[in-house]
Design brief:
Layout: H1 6-9, H2 13-21, E1 26-27, H3 28-38, H4 47-59, E2 63-69, E3 77-83, H5 85-106
Antiparallel strand pairs: 1-3, 2-3
Helix pairs in contact: 2-5
Length: 115
């Protein structure tokens, strides 16, 4: 089975995270589970990649973090993330960029993958 190269998908980790945060605030483990689920287990984001993305996006104003009790209400504190207005614009820009990228790359893909 062919796996997705982390080099190929790296530029779209932020897009996937922002997509999930567009629905509701969430925390790291839940976001990684949703990425796995939505990718039909074809992409598993590494924890270090995920938290590096959180740090970068928070620094750039695309997301903000807050500490809250977890959803189970057992008193455990968790860091949640939510998308900002600036993050929504960045997400929209990345979606447009993807359409252009896909359009360009498809010009170099053979249907059967064989010369």
């Amino acid at each position: 089975m062919i796996e997705i190269s982390s080099d190929v998908i790296r530029g779209y980790n932020d897009t996937m995270i922002l997509f999930i945060l567009g629905d509701a605030p969430s925390y790291g483990y839940e976001i990684s589970k949703k990425i796995k689920q939505l990718s039909k287990e074809k992409y598993l984001i590494k924890e270090t990649t995920l938290y590096s993305a959180f740090t970068r996006m928070e620094k750039n104003g695309f997301i903000e973090s807050f500490v809250s009790e977890d959803a189970e209400g057992n008193g455990k504190k968790r860091t949640y993330y939510r998308i900002t207005e600036q993050g929504k614009q960045y997400y929209a820009d990345k979606c447009e960029e993807w359409k252009l990228t896909k359009d360009v790359v498809e010009n170099f893909i053979r249907d059967n993958g064989i010369y």
